[in-house]
Structure formats: C-alpha cells, structure tokens
Design goal:
Number of helices: 5
Strand order of the largest sheet: 1-9-8-5-6
Shape: globular
Order of helices and strands: EHEEEEHEEEHEHEEEEHEEEEEEE
Radius of gyration: 23 Å
Helix content: 10-25%
Number of domains: 2
Length: 371
C-alpha cells in the first residue's frame, strides 16, 4: 500500500540539510527513522477461506491473495516514538472500498462512508466496482472479498482505503477532517491498499465461469498452471548482526521473538539478512507469453506459452530511538549499516525489517538493540 499523512513536519529541515551538507544528519532524522507514531505495514491475510478452492493453504502458512467469498483481514502495524508497537485495541479504523475509480478521488469525490457495502449488497448492487464503506474496526478488520468484475490488469484487484486513528482520535473524525482539507490533522493516518485476487489462473478460471473474458483462452492454459499456489508473505531465514567484534546469527523462523543484541553507545553495526529462498521457490508465478503465428488470418487467435518465475522480495528498513542508518538502503539491499548514537541513554532501540512482494505479501521482523 501507499501510506500518507496529513502532516509532514520537518520537510523544510530535510531540504536545508541537503543544501548545508551531511554534518547535520544526526539532527535531521532519516525518512526511515521513527520520530513519531507511524504506520509501518499493512499485513493482510485470509482469515477464513470461502467456498472457492478452499484447499489453497497447502502448507498452513498465512495466505496473502484472496478469492471472492474469502474473509480478508488487513492488520495494520504502527510503531510509536519509543519503537514499540501500538496495541491493536488502541487503534480506531475505518475501511472504504474505492470501487471502479480506485482511490484517486476517494477524498475529493462523493463521501463513500455514507454508503455501506452491506446495504449495497442487500440491494443486489455490490461487487468490486462499488464504492462504499466496508466497515469499522481496530488494528484488525475483517471483510468478505466481493466478486471480481475484470480479469485483465490492475482492475482485477480491489482498491481499499484505510482511515486510522490513535491517542483518543476517532477514524470518523479523521475522515471528516481529511475531506475538509482545511486544517492540520493530528493522530491520524491514511493508507491506500490493494487487495490482490489470486492465485491468478484460478481467478481467470472462476471469472470465465462467471461469464468474464479471460486474459488467455481457457483451453490454452495447461493444467499444471492452475496449480500455481496462493501467495504467502515473504520471510527471512537468517539475520546476521556484526558489532564490536561479535557476530550474532538468528533464524527468525524458529523464534517467536528475537533476543536483544547488547551494544554500547557509538557502536557501529552491520546487519546482513537472507530471504527464505525456498519459500519463494515453492510458489512460482506463471505468466503467459503470446507467440508469433504463421496463420495469415489477422483474426486468428494467438497461441501462448507459459513461463515460470520466482517473485522478488524487497526490503524497507525503519529504526527508532538511538539507532540510525549510516547509509540509506536500497530496496534490493541485503546488508545495512547502522549505528547507536554516541550520546545514547541506557535503554533499547529497534530495527524493523519490512519485507514486501508484488502480490500483497508483507511481513515484519523486528530486532532490539540494548545500550
């Protein structure tokens, strides 16, 4: 999803820092630094499988892609200025389905919160193109995925808009202030999030059964392609932490939480991560490629071949308290350099590793540094 906030404090300072040089880097926090309560990730999973292909969780792990009729749970993860997560019940949320226009006009267009999706469904006027209020919740919210309306491109997916509030603010108040656009908004965040339907070729088959035009003629899709597994969120198989001449190695898959790493003020830290490549290999993606035909008839149906690939994983890093980045990591980096402020007081600082793929999979691993 793409995150937005109504306030951008420190923007002028960031511009000035780039002009005056890097000597001010410790006073001007990095974009990856958690200096205020901040939305870190939207971790979505299927909470309950619907009647379509209910055997999708082949390995028992969370599934990020959804089929019509599944119950979806977009769980939001916030971190406060102390680096600790906000409790689920400390968040008030409201979720809108953007409909056919996606979320480009969700703020300036008609107030979608005035039309509940349940009412639209009761009048047989509800599908993925309907703009309406899905409902309200806390840090978690469950809703039933509507029927697909298109099988081609981005329109096959569902655009939703989350309005999130904390510290006594209500999501409804945040939404009204956001639409008014005439004041600063405190303790609110807004996120445009895309819910991905899949596995892709089972969605194509289901849509075809519903009378929709598939991307590829169904009779040209090999049976093996329909076995493309549902997308599961990416994972780390190893975190290596090098500091003060010591190397710690952790496997997040085997631990409910990682042990704290003991450091000192001024410590320089090198963290190297390794993605769980086997997990990615277990869920290949099949894409259809049209091949040239020798048939001179321009109306002739093209032929297709299917190519398998492995989805890449990308990393976003966040730090808090006395922990900072030495250099901003790129999305494809697997090694990051950090340091503890040499004036750090006794306490804890956190590094958060957010893993993302292209089909709605997100997972978060956090690592504590004591000093």
């Amino acid at each position: 999803g793409s995150f937005s906030r109504a306030r951008t404090p420190g923007l002028v300072g960031l511009v000035l820092a780039s002009v005056l040089g890097l000597s001010c880097v410790f006073q001007v926090p990095s974009p990856t630094y958690i200096g205020e309560t901040r939305l870190i990730a939207v971790q979505t999973s299927v909470a309950e499988f619907g009647p379509l292909y209910s055997s999708r969780p082949e390995h028992g792990e969370p599934v990020a892609e959804v089929m019509p009729g599944d119950i979806k749970d977009p769980g939001v993860l916030f971190r406060g200025v102390d680096g600790l997560p906000l409790a689920v019940d400390a968040i008030d949320s409201m979720w809108l389905q953007c409909g056919a226009l996606f979320c480009d006009f969700v703020v300036s267009g008609p107030d979608l919160a005035a039309y509940t999706c349940a009412d639209q469904a009761a009048h047989d006027n509800y599908d993925g193109n309907t703009g309406c209020l899905l409902g309200k919740g806390d840090g978690h919210f469950e809703f039933e995925a509507p029927e697909v309306v298109e099988l081609s491109g981005i329109q096959r997916n569902l655009a939703v808009y989350g309005v999130l509030a904390w510290d006594g603010m209500s999501a409804e108040t945040c939404w009204q202030q956001r639409r008014a656009l005439d004041q600063e908004i405190e303790n609110c965040a807004f996120v445009e999030h895309r819910v991905y339907y899949g596995p892709e070729w089972l969605v194509q088959l289901h849509g075809y059964d519903q009378g929709l035009e598939p991307d590829v003629p169904i009779d040209q899709i090999p049976a093996a392609v329909f076995g493309q597994p549902a997308n599961r969120p990416p994972a780390l198989q190893e975190i290596q932490v090098e500091h003060d001449g010591v190397v710690d190695v952790f496997d997040p898959r085997e631990m409910s939480s990682l042990p704290a790493v003991a450091t000192e003020p001024g410590a320089e830290i090198v963290v190297t991560i390794a993605f769980d490549e086997l997990l990615q290999l277990q869920q290949p993606i099949f894409s259809a490629k049209a091949v040239e035909s020798s048939n001179p008839d321009p109306e002739a149906e093209p032929s297709y071949v299917f190519v398998g690939s492995v989805e890449p994983v990308y990393l976003n890093l966040f730090t808090s308290n006395a922990l900072h980045v030495l250099t901003e990591p790129f999305l494809t980096d697997t090694t990051v350099e950090l340091f503890i402020d040499d004036q750090a007081k006794a306490g804890s600082s956190w590094a958060l590793f957010v893993l993302r793929d292209f089909r709605g999979g997100e997972s978060v691993v956090w690592l504590e540094f004591t000093h």
